Amino acid sequence: MSVDDNFDYSPKIQQSVIGASLNLSMFLNFIMGIYTMMYIGTMYLYFSRKPANTHRCGILYSISMLYLLCMIVFVIQWYYLDFAIVINGDTKESIFNATIEGGPVWIFVFFQFFFYSVFIVSDELLIWQCYYVWDMSWRVISVPLALFFAEFCLLIAVSVTTALFSIIASAADATIADDIASAQVFMLFGTTVTTSSLIAYKIHTALQLTASHSKRSFSHVVVNVLEPAAVYALVVFIYAVLSPCYD
Questions:
Q1: Is 83 a domain residue?
Q2: Is residue 89 part of a domain?
Q3: Is 194 inside any structural domain?
Q4: Where are the transmembrane segments (predicted)?
Q5: Which residue in 143, 141, 132 sits closest to 57, CA to CA?
Q6: Mean pLDDT value of segment 61-79
Q7: What proportion of the chain, given as a percentage, has pLDDT over 70?
Q8: Full domain range(s) for residue 76
Q9: Which of 22, 38, 63, 236 could staple 189 via S-S, CB 3.0–4.6 A?
Q10: Environment class of residue 147 by beta-carbon count within 10 Å: exposed (0-12), middle (13-18) or buried (19+)?
């Protein structure tokens, strides 16, 4: 992304953009602090109360990978803030230009790669849960796995097009890059909805075969498993719809 030299941005717009970037970084600091405490608490509960097995080791690996990826995104965002305010902080206009341009191309490529990797690992964890809910049936999770493979391929495509973004010369090339990024997000949404639906169907079927006095326990399982997936799917869908507006 670059600033249009033919357009004169008013001081009010510059201040709004700089303020939004700074406030976003501060909010991300707050969220990462909460996330770190939750991650440490989760690790403590798993290691102190639950015996180790293949299923739990897979979950711990995915949770740890998610935390690591989020931390990398956090560090890159921190670098953006330092780049805009410290390295290019001579004037408000220079800070604004650095904020819009986003720093070197290579760091933006890394940001895109790790940002979308967070969603991919989240879907991997959801598919892992679906695999065990369906009694380790590869046939059932074949569709989510195919969507997951498409996610990974689109991740590579997004990274490549992001690396080429600085040398894109035509509006058609920019449109292709935006379409690939949008396809990536919609594929994430499709994987999440498909996998969550399979889990919901399996739980619903098991619930129908369960005695009435045990249904309350199953209801808690439904809430704990499906509500986070539903919120995640909604967030991904909103991002998929709105992301082209900001490209």
A1: yes
A2: yes
A3: no
A4: 26-47, 59-80, 105-128, 140-168, 180-201, 221-242
A5: 132
A6: 90
A7: 78
A8: 10-103
A9: 236
A10: buried
**197-229 per-position pLDDT tens digit:** 888 888 778 777 665 555 565 566 666 666 677
C-alpha separations of 169 from 1, 11, 163, 164, 177 in Å:
12, 29, 14, 10, 12
Residue 34's pLDDT is 92
Three-state SS for the chain is CCCCCCCCCCHHHHHHHHHHHHHHHHHHHHHHHHHHHHHHHHHHHHHHHCCCCHHHHHHHHHHHHHHHHHHHHHHHHHHHHHHHHHHCCCCHHHHHHHHHHCCCHHHHHHHHHHHHHHHHHHHHHHHHHHHHHCCCCCCCCHHHHHHHHHHHHHHHHHHHHHHCHHHCCCHHHHHHHHHHHHHHHHHHHHHHHHHHHHHHHHHHHHHHCCCHHHHHHHHHHHHHHHHHHHHHHHHHHHHHHHHHHHC
The domain boundary, picked from 40, 74, 103, lies at 103
Please name the residue that has the structure tokens 């006095």.
Answer: 213
User: Which of 46, 81, 103 is the endpoint of a domain?
Assistant: 103
The C-alpha atoms of residue 205 and residue 200 are separated, in whole angstroms, by 9
What does the block give as tokens for 240?
A: 């998929």
Q: What's the number of domains the chain is made of?
A: 2
